[in-house]
């Protein structure tokens, strides 16, 4: 039996496009034109993943997100934003949205967002197991997996303390493209970046790089597109 995904959007062509892509990715799409209709479908089917437009008449996407999280905190919610709606996307992340994707919808962006949610659900509930420290010749790399929240902070801090004790070159905080970060996680990262000004941040998805820049976090730590790029700078300098 394929996994169901509920999509809520007030534009029928957008729903049709989502349904087409989701079926191609092996999901069963459920669609609703209003937030109220979407909640009725959610109550009836309990899908593990919901995608909702953030701007809709009547019940908007933030209200839908809050209602679903109240009913089922474990359900993943991806919000759909228009170009330039970063403030609304940040509000959604603060309400524990798993991710956001921009209109116009792109197949690759949707697939990446779905993969992030799949990894987040698959990750162990033990945050400690989702963080690893790797020593390289010219750097120590701390890699986070799954979903970064306020509860991740003590585990990230412990990992960074171990990394600082080992570091002979760069200290790198590595986020694979599948990682998502909610509002609490962003606050935790800001605190850690201020505490460890030598950190380099690597491989955040394009959406979360935009969030970092909007919040000014890129002024606390440089952003790099790959581990090779971040670590290679030290190799060249040394």
TrEMBL record:
CDD domains: STAS_anti-anti-sigma_factors. SMART domains: REC. It holds the Pfam family STAS. Residues 4-118 form the Response regulatory domain. One of its GO terms (biological process) is phosphorelay signal transduction system. Residues 129-234 form the STAS domain. Keywords: Phosphoprotein. The keyword Phosphoprotein applies. The keyword Transcription does not apply. The modification 4-aspartylphosphate is found at residue 53. This is Anti-sigma-factor antagonist. It comes from Desulfohalobium retbaense (strain ATCC 49708 / DSM 5692 / JCM 16813 / HR100). The lineage of its organism: Bacteria, Pseudomonadati, Thermodesulfobacteriota, Desulfovibrionia, Desulfovibrionales.
